Amino acid sequence: MLAVFSGGVVEVPEELVAAGSRTPSPKTRASELVNRFLGSSDPAVSMKLGDFGHLAYSHTNQALLRPRSFAAKDEIFCLFEGVLDNLGRLIQQYGLSKGANEVVLVIEAYKALRDRAPYPASFMLSQLTGSYAFVLFDMSTNSLLVASDPEGKVPLFWGITADGCVAFSDDIDMLKGSCGKSLAPFPEGCFYSNALGGLKCYENPKNKVESSTVLTALHF
């Protein structure tokens, strides 16, 4: 899966920018990255989010226990990879139909908590159990939420393209050609929310992640 957002949506850690500056390497623009993904993942589904970004996914080379899915509702768009062990219980909790899958659940849970004070939308992350990674964008509020399970069971990477966009993908090789050295695994036990101030830790969501956590991820 691939998600690309403009620098106006995602404020990346300075360490990720500095890594690319220390050892310059070839990069491409975000549009070239998207086109390369679509060309190598045929058939693929893609969605342009105005000037904010682009989402794309394919079932090509999909792992049996890490299915990919996409859904959109009420200007909320989500890419999801993996499985939730407690999907059935959460479906009941949020009053969804029995046929709802993981990506639908994430959208509905996000929407319910977004509209229900005093809980932040990220509160739902504490309810998810399983192996997963997802990228959710709410066009109505320009809010981005990116997360993987606390143990990082589903690989997720992020990097910076030549034109300053931030890309997320489960395929590191896809990002290497466009992000050069400005690339790292998404930190385990963390999630990103531009509405909550950037990269956060599951254990202490009110605090911003320290630079050491990002630097550790860079040395892979």
UniProtKB/TrEMBL annotation:
SMART domains according to UniProt: DUF3700
Classification via Gene3D superfamilies: Glutamine Phosphoribosylpyrophosphate, subunit 1, domain 1
All copies of domain DUF3700, residue ranges: 2-214
Sequence intervals crossing the membrane: none
SUPFAM superfamilies: N-terminal nucleophile aminohydrolases (Ntn hydrolases) (SSF56235)
Domain of life: Eukaryota
InterPro entries for the chain: DUF3700, Ntn_hydrolases_N, TSJT1-like
PANTHER family: ALUMINUM INDUCED PROTEIN WITH YGL AND LRDR MOTIFS
Protein name, entry field: DUF3700 domain-containing protein
Organism classification: Eukaryota, Viridiplantae, Streptophyta, Embryophyta, Tracheophyta
